[in-house]
Design goal:
The complex is a heterodimer of chains A (434) and B (170). Chain A is an alpha/beta fold and 434 residues long. Chain A contains 18 helices and nine strands. Chain A folds into three domains: 212 residues, 3-Layer(aba) Sandwich (Rossmann fold); 86 residues, Ubiquitin-like (UB roll), CATH 3.10.20; 88 residues, de novo design (two linked rop proteins), CATH 1.20.1440.230. In chain A, strands 6-5-9-7-8 form a five-stranded mixed sheet. A four-stranded parallel sheet of chain A has the order 3-2-1-4, with helices on both faces. Chain A is globular. Chain B has a four-stranded mixed sheet with strand order 2-1-3-4, covered by helices on one side. In chain B, β3 and β4 form a beta hairpin. By secondary structure, chain B is an alpha+beta fold. The chains are: A alpha/beta (434), B alpha+beta (170).
Chain lengths: 434, 170
């Protein structure tokens, strides 16, 4: 089986990223040219056939999202690209934005053609300030060569892309918070419904897709939905960028066809190459900080949406943090929870206070003060946060905790007896609070 | 501390960005960067609010919501250590201590000469080369005690001699 496939990563390191000429030489803009000769509904049909699921983490079917927006009669419609990659362990959009920005531009422009949009926004996180400059250069070059701006490639299509910078807020990766941020407001999430397709940016119908999702669109248009689907599995079309980090031997971004097993990813010589320093895999944290933790006995699960889901795992953003036996579950979860305390926007109580309380109990576990009832309290808190939080951030903040409570119950018990199997807790001083 | 920004300079930044709410975060980031002390002064916040036609209270709401902004003066160079789990398991805590040893300060503190501030940050998207530190736009990865010492020395040199040796360390 093929372990890696370059559908959207083929240009990385091979072309001058902002050069229209080099991008076109490498086959770029062929998707846009073909798209301009098709009917908008045909393009949406291809995306549906391709089974392209949102690559930012939520895995919402892109074809259905496009179809819903297409059915809404109001205009103008805005095209928004979510490049607020803030998920720890995820650095794939950084590669697309910095190494192949014109592919993202091409995908957004195809969307503009489908929806008759004149304006698009790309929201790039503030930590990627240098990349924003590369992207702006790519936009300017595309305008100069007639691939963007007015009367694109001699047609009636006029489309401009504006860059909006983030400024350090994970919550802005949530689509409605992101739109608020573009409007110059704090990035608080909005209540849904109304959905963004109806009331989005500046209260107008809006399409929001991830950088990687837009990047796949030119390939789907060019090769056809069926062909794209065939690269993956019957339920998960095409390829996914995955990001290996933590204690893997070969950390980095890899483009894999769906269907490759987690074992191939973590141990395969073409991808992860095993665990650094010859240690043993203890667990892996998949999909981002809000994703589940998996154990070595789940390694034969194929990496595709359906199989991961039935194994209690999820693809999420594509992050896979590899952890070895030296990592303590409690200490790790403290790190995860500190992240959510820092990134909770504070709008709703379950998320704002819940994460604090979870952290308090984890600290009690790691300094030997916890009692048995604390475990039950952890579970109750987690269920409360999942059910009562306003947006996805709070709802999924304890996914890692839940899976660890299930897979590593004995390690929680050991901490109740003031024993840390990994030898991390009870010796070190308290980590500095945020 | 010597004031580096003037009303004209701030207006120029606003105009160059296109004076719109969609560019608000970029405008504020640029002002902060040009301030010399990594913060947005009330005077300039007021001016931005007027220009983009937004009440100052709303602008303050924005400034205090986003983690990259500070309304209090910080060091000329803000050293941000990522503490997300991929960096945590590659021992970012030790990196904080190493920077602390080099600079003689703890986390969230500024050196007496106002040159460095040491901070924690969320993910900077360089998880493959953890543990990492970010200074301005520059990200330094796979840090060791030697690299930490070199980085601090290079920024001190930038300050003394006014030229950029920091880039050579990447």
């Amino acid at each position: 089986m093929v372990m890696t496939r370059q559908l959207i990563s083929s240009n990385w390191g091979n072309i001058q990223p902002e050069s229209v000429e080099e991008y076109a030489m490498a086959g770029g803009f062929a998707g846009l040219k073909k798209a301009l000769s098709m009917q908008p509904d045909e393009i949406i049909a291809e995306i549906k056939t391709a089974k392209l699921l949102g690559r930012g983490g939520a895995a919402y079917p892109a074809g259905a999202k496009w179809e819903q927006l297409r059915a809404i009669p109001h205009s103008p419609k805005y095209i928004v690209c979510n490049g607020d990659e803030g998920e720890p362990g995820t650095f794939k959009d950084k590669m697309l934005l910095s190494q192949d920005p014109l592919r993202v531009i091409e995908g957004m422009t195809i969307a503009a053609y489908v929806f008759g949009s004149q304006d698009g926004y790309i929201y790039i996180r503030g930590e990627y300030l240098g990349i924003q400059k590369v992207f702006q250069q790519a936009i300017d070059n595309a305008v100069k060569e007639g691939y963007l701006g007015s009367r694109i490639l001699g047609t009636d299509l006029t489309f401009n892309i504006h860059i909006t910078s983030g400024a350090g807020a994970y919550i802005c990766g949530e689509n409605s918070a992101l739109l608020n941020s573009i409007e110059g407001k704090p990035g608080y999430p909005r209540i849904k419904p109304p959905h963004l397709a109806e009331v989005g940016l500046f209260s107008m119908p809006t399409l929001v897709n991830n950088v990687e999702t837009f990047s796949a669109v030119p390939t789907i248009v060019m090769e056809g939905g069926e062909k794209y689907l065939s690269y993956g599995t019957p339920d998960s079309g095409g390829t996914k960028l995955i990001c290996l980090s933590g204690l893997s031997r070969r950390n980095g971004v890899y483009e894999i066809p769906f269907g490759v097993t987690l074992r191939d990813i973590i141990y395969g010589s073409e991808i992860g190459g095993g665990i650094a320093r010859g240690k043993k895999l203890k667990f892996f944290h998949i999909g981002g900080q809000s994703g589940p933790c998996g154990t070595p006995d789940q390694l034969d699960t194929p990496y595709c949406y359906k199989a991961l889901k039935s194994a209690g795992l999820s693809a999420g953003s594509g992050a896979i943090v590899v952890l070895d036996e030296s990592v303590c579950i409690i200490d790790y979860l403290k790190g995860v929870t500190e992240f959510f305390i820092h990134e909770s926007c504070g709008k709703c109580t379950p998320c704002r206070e819940g994460n604090q309380k979870v952290h308090d109990i984890l600290c009690k576990l790691s300094n030997g003060m916890a009692v048995e009832q604390d475990i039950a309290l952890l579970k109750r808190l987690s269920s409360m946060m999942t059910n009562a939080s306003f947006c996805g951030l709070g709802q999924s903040a304890t996914v890692a905790l839940d899976t660890c409570l299930k897979h590593f119950a004995e390690e929680f018990d050991a901490h109740l007896q003031q024993k840390c199997p990994a030898g991390v807790c009870f010796e070190e001083q308290e980590r500095v609070a945020i | 501390m010597k004031k580096q920004l003037t009303r004209d300079k701030v207006l120029k930044i606003i105009q160059a960005n296109g004076c719109s709410k969609e560019r608000l975060l970029s405008i504020l980031l640029e002002i902060q960067q040009a301030s010399g002390h990594n913060s947005v002064d009330e005077e300039w916040a007021q001016l931005v609010a007027e220009q983009v036609q937004m009440p100052i209270t709303q602008l303050y709401n924005v400034l205090t919501f986003y983690a990259m902004f500070s309304t209090k003066q910080r060091g000329k160079f803000v050293i941000e250590i990522c503490k997300s789990t991929p960096c945590h398991v590659t021992k970012s805590d030790e990196i904080v201590k190493m920077f602390g040893d080099e600079l003689g300060i703890g986390i969230s503190e500024t050196t007496p000469d106002n040159l460095f501030t040491l901070m924690h940050t969320g993910c900077v998207g360089a998880c493959d080369i953890g543990p990492v530190a970010k200074i301005g736009e520059q990200v330094y990865g796979n840090l060791t005690r030697k690299k930490v010492a070199d980085i601090v020395a290079s920024y001190r040199e930038v300050e003394q001699h006014g030229y950029d040796t920091a880039a050579n360390l990447l």
